[in-house]
Amino acid sequence: MVSPSVSPSPAPHPQSSLHALRSTCLSLLLAQQSHPIGFPILTSQPKPLLSPFCDLQPSEHTLLALWDELRDVIYERLKAEARAELLARSLVEESEAMDEEEDDDGVLEERIQKLEQEVAKLQAEQGVKEEIALGIITGREVQNTIYGMRGDRENGAPASSIAKTRALRSLTHLHSTYLSILTHLHNTLTTLHTHLTHLTTQRLTQTNTNRLLTTHLLKLTSQIASKAHKDNIFDENLRRKVEEMELQVKDVKMRWEVARNVFQGVVAGSGVDWVRVEDGRLRTLILEAGEELE
């Protein structure tokens, strides 16, 4: 049995189908939103950030911003100091290289200077990195200590985290107290060291004075002995020569005393710490000046 042929219905136009679907969807959505028990209007709400800085006062934000600016200034200062040190070293090395003669060892010295520059640069960069790392670690701990407890309470943190924060706060206070004590002890030690240096200078001055007095006593003794010996000389010509030689010796001693006093005055006025020099040659020269001709 043959089924009757069914002619296919014409396909709808795409534009009309799209318009009909859009109208139907819009009407359906509007009806559901206006209905008392319809679907609520869904909006994207970001989740609150679990951060200790989410609920800070404006003054606290300003304080944190000033803290960041301070760390930036310290970082720039360290970079500037490192650059200045590298520039000074390079200028010194260039001046030394210009003064030196070009010989076979010039290439080796140039390599050594380049290596020293690289080492100085690496040391400066390492110092900057350590300073930045220390600032970050210290700032993070301080911020977590000050603002972490309130954020933990608001975010429902466990009691163990709050206890750790309280312990960290007490340790931070203890660290500040110890730091103040250490600073006071350091200042006291510096004062005692300065007083010890002053006493050492006074002792050396007294020792020098005693040496001068002893030398003067020996000189008087020698003069008395020479005078007694001169009285025993009966030849007029020989006695006259002895007196002339004594006058010459006195003139030389007077000149030496003047030169020694000028030298000591120049050293004392220059501000050179001749008491604590490492090799001790300057101190020995000042204390023993004039003893060879006495």
Q: What order do the helices and strands follow?
A: HHHHHH
β content, as a range?
A: under 5%
Helix/strand structural class: mainly alpha
* General shape: elongated
> What's the tally of helices?
6
What does this structure look like?
The protein has helices at 14-34, 58-99, 106-154, 159-231, 236-270, 281-287. The protein has 294 residues and is an all-alpha fold. Among the domains are: 58-157, no CATH class; 210-287. It is elongated, with a radius of gyration of 46 Å. Belongs to the CENP-H/MCM16 family. This is Centromere protein H C-terminal domain-containing protein. It is found in: Chromosome, Centromere, Kinetochore; Nucleus.
Summarize the structure.
The chain is built from six helices and no strands.
Q: What features would you highlight for this structure?
A:
single chain, 294 residues, mainly alpha, 6 helices, kinetochore, nucleus, CENP-H, CENP-H_C, kinetochore binding
Secondary structure blueprint with pairings:
Layout lengths: L13 H21 L23 H42 L6 H49 L4 H73 L4 H35 L10 H7 L7
